[in-house]
Amino acid sequence: MAPVFEKVWEAAGPVRGCESPHWDAEAQCLYFVDLVGCKVVKYHPASKRTTSASFGKAMVNFAIPVAGRGDAFVAGRHRSVVLFEWDGVSSQPRLVQTLDEVQADAEGKDLHLNDGKADYRGRLWSGTMCGLDPGLSGGVLFNMDEDGKARVRRTGVTMSNGLDFTPDGRTAFHVDSFKRVVNVLDVDPDTGDVLDYRPLLSFDAVRVPGLPDRMPPGLEGPKWTVPDGVALDAEGKLWVAVFNGGMLVRVDPDTGAVMSTLAVPAKQVTSLAFGGADLDELYVTSGRFFMADADLAKHPDSGAVFRVTGLGVKGRPGRPVRL
């Protein structure tokens, strides 16, 4: 049976986008962020109910539950990692504290946090991006232990994006979008130190069916075709969302070889997370940013969240952050 896509959520407005899906296996629900609406959204599949909490005019780039703390979450807001409380019903969260600010003194008003995820020890990983200029590389990759302090692990990043980790904590995957590269990292699981950082898959070096090999000189950042969010399945294979590519790519994490592709009914695919009671469903987020009329006509559901069934592959649940 071919995979089936079901649209489960969609924002209003001509510009829209969602990111950073997180499956909470204990609560059997999906959390994700509405970037343009500055909201954290909760989707409960059993009831098909959606609720959201607004952060006003402050964009939220990720929101992840905190282990053992009920309604507590960590979130990325501008350059800060914050702790907030939300009961999953109220329209507004309660901001508890700012844990740390990343690159506080860095120049550039467009520099801010992007995607984030916890590893299997509950250590938060995230990074920054320098706006939408592909030529800027002032971002970083960092992680945060239970002390709530951010530690920079990599500099020279253009747009920090998707992250995921092997269960033993020794290997991580990190996307640097405007370099069009998915990187693999050797990590010390006890300290969070990055021991090695190297390319796994470069969209410039490896031919991916249906994707351009190179970006034309002078092309604006929002029009680039780049890797975005990532997720490992239960077989250890890496799934990569392709922004402006309208697809997911399944990659061999040992060789970087493209194993298969899956078309998505949205051009700007932003991220993905496995979910469902048996972790055999895939939730895919997407964007609708500066799209041409022809692209909108071809992909009218761009900006929605989809549930995909019938993949024949299981995944792993999201991990909470430990503080």
TrEMBL record:
<dbReference type="GO" id="GO:0030234">
    <property type="term" value="F:enzyme regulator activity"/>
</dbReference>
<feature type="binding site">
    <location>
        <position position="19"/>
    </location>
    <ligand>
        <name>a divalent metal cation</name>
    </ligand>
</feature>
<keyword id="KW-0378">Hydrolase</keyword>
<dbReference type="InterPro" id="IPR011042">
    <property type="entry name" value="6-blade_b-propeller_TolB-like"/>
</dbReference>
<dbReference type="GO" id="GO:0005509">
    <property type="term" value="F:calcium ion binding"/>
</dbReference>
<dbReference type="GO" id="GO:0019853">
    <property type="term" value="P:L-ascorbic acid biosynthetic process"/>
</dbReference>
<dbReference type="InterPro" id="IPR005511">
    <property type="entry name" value="SMP-30"/>
</dbReference>
<dbReference type="Pfam" id="PF08450">
    <property type="entry name" value="SGL"/>
</dbReference>
<dbReference type="InterPro" id="IPR013658">
    <property type="entry name" value="SGL"/>
</dbReference>
<feature type="binding site">
    <location>
        <position position="114"/>
    </location>
    <ligand>
        <name>substrate</name>
    </ligand>
</feature>
<feature type="binding site">
    <location>
        <position position="228"/>
    </location>
    <ligand>
        <name>a divalent metal cation</name>
    </ligand>
</feature>
<feature type="domain" description="SMP-30/Gluconolactonase/LRE-like region">
    <location>
        <begin position="19"/>
        <end position="287"/>
    </location>
</feature>
<dbReference type="InterPro" id="IPR008367">
    <property type="entry name" value="Regucalcin"/>
</dbReference>
<dbReference type="GO" id="GO:0004341">
    <property type="term" value="F:gluconolactonase activity"/>
</dbReference>
<feature type="binding site">
    <location>
        <position position="161"/>
    </location>
    <ligand>
        <name>a divalent metal cation</name>
    </ligand>
</feature>
<keyword id="KW-0106">Calcium</keyword>
<keyword id="KW-0479">Metal-binding</keyword>
<keyword id="KW-0963">Cytoplasm</keyword>
<comment type="similarity">
    <text>Belongs to the SMP-30/CGR1 family.</text>
</comment>
<dbReference type="GO" id="GO:0005737">
    <property type="term" value="C:cytoplasm"/>
</dbReference>
<feature type="active site" description="Proton donor/acceptor">
    <location>
        <position position="228"/>
    </location>
</feature>
<protein>
    <recommendedName>
        <fullName>Regucalcin</fullName>
        <ecNumber>3.1.1.17</ecNumber>
    </recommendedName>
</protein>
<keyword id="KW-0862">Zinc</keyword>
